[in-house]
Amino acid sequence: TQSTWGNRLEMLKRVPVCVRAVASHSSSSSPSSHPHYSPNNHNLADRILKAIVATRPQVNLHALTPADLADLDEFHTAGKRGSQIVFDSLGLVPQMKVLDLGCGLGGPARYAAATYSCHVIGVDITPEFIDTAKILTSRMQNGGLGNGSVEFHCASVTSMPFVPSGSIDAAFTIHVGMNIKDKTGFYREVFRCLKPGGTFVVFDVARDPTSTTDIQYPVPWARDPADSFVVTPAEYRAAAENAGLEVTELQDFFVLSEQFAASNQQAVSHNQLPPVAAALVFDPVLFKQMAANRTTNMKNKTTTLVRMVCRRPNNLQSRL
């Protein structure tokens, strides 16, 4: 029943999540939700767990694995392939300390912890996402993360005092920069957290520099231009370099993003999305509009998808 589920979720929230696996884009110690991601997310964990039970009753909700949440966890363009593009550039090995910046529901953080036996610190601005990430991760304590571990903080990725300077081996951000106006400030904070020689990978939607067409809204990261700060690949590079980071690679993945957007739009149009998918996060009607506009923006070559690989030089201070 609803009350039974509510009681279970409240119990889970009181369990300390000191497991093997997040914070915000405001500098406040008590960040508020990003308005784009909050309205439809009350009882999000409850709805996710119910969707799992309804469609896959054989799944043990107290021993979840990354595979059980795969359709939901890859909450970005290109899905799991996109995540792997990021991880292929990070060079992760066991015992590394890794930052997932803008971790959402914690999917890539859990995957990195389980696959590479790392300790991952997830940070996101939306409290509902962090609460859900903790609940889902607590269901993986029985081996779902292997030898890896994860922790979550609700805070701004532009201000992370809980991360000691020079303590992080690798950091990544997936589809977060589009919501951050001051990208150089964001990257300066990443620089501070990284060890000298540490790697930072950005996987974001970017503005095609040859396009003269406006982005059509709403899209998965913003309802309107007020919350959207999409820039060109060259501007991503400039922001990183101005923060003191060395950019070692900047690659365009337009074909991959176009294919994913078209496939996702077809699934949305025919109501063929997996039941435990990103559509649970948004209003269903709004999500259809977002998917359609994402496809249109890609077809018009208004937006593209980029991976930027950076490293913190061994003997260089962040540029203030």
Task: Look at the helices and sheets and give the structural class.
Answer: alpha/beta
| Helix residue percentage | 25-40%
Strand order of the largest sheet: 3-2-1-4-5-7-6
Biggest sheet descriptor: 7 strands, mixed
- The Cα radius of gyration reads 19 Å
Q: Report the mean per-residue pLDDT as an integer.
A: 81
How would you sum up the global shape? globular
Number of strands: 7
N-to-C CA distance: 55 Å
Please give the count of helices.
10
Short description:
With 320 residues, the chain is an alpha/beta fold. The protein is 36% helix and 17% strand.
Describe this structure in words.
This protein has helices at 2-14, 44-55, 70-73, 79-90, 107-116, 127-138, 183-193, 233-242, 254-269, 284-299; strands spanning 97-101, 119-124, 149-154, 168-174, 194-207, 246-252, 303-311. By secondary structure, the protein is an alpha/beta fold. A 7-stranded mixed beta sheet has the order 3-2-1-4-5-7-6, sandwiched between helices. α6 (127-138) links the parallel β2 and β3. α7 (183-193) crosses α8 and α9 (254-269) packs antiparallel against α10. The protein starts with a helix and ends in a 9-residue tail after the last strand.
